[in-house]
Write a structure and sequence with these properties.
Blueprint: H1 4-13, H2 17-30, H3 39-56, H4 64-74
């Protein structure tokens, strides 16, 4: 850690929780590099595809309680 880092960290800890969360999100985002210019259009297309599948009845929806139970069993071993 550089000499500046502890000072910056101490200053950040004096911020209110919302400001710290915003700062943390911005710092993490800064590590990602530039945004993919095609990502938003790709997500919009995927959302449209999923909505169409739901409306057409070709996509089986699962209640959250069932999904959570499956995750706990398969992934967490509970």
């Amino acid at each position: 850690m550089s000499k500046v880092t502890p000072s910056v960290f101490a200053d950040a800890l004096r911020l209110d929780p919302d400001a710290r969360a915003e700062l943390a999100a911005e710092l993490l985002a800064s590590l990602d590099g530039p945004a993919d210019p095609d990502a938003e259009a790709a997500w919009e297309a995927e959302i449209d595809r999923r909505v169409e599948a739901i409306e057409a009845g070709t996509l089986r929806l699962e209640p959250w309680a069932e999904v959570k139970r499956r995750i706990e069993k398969e992934i967490l071993g509970r």
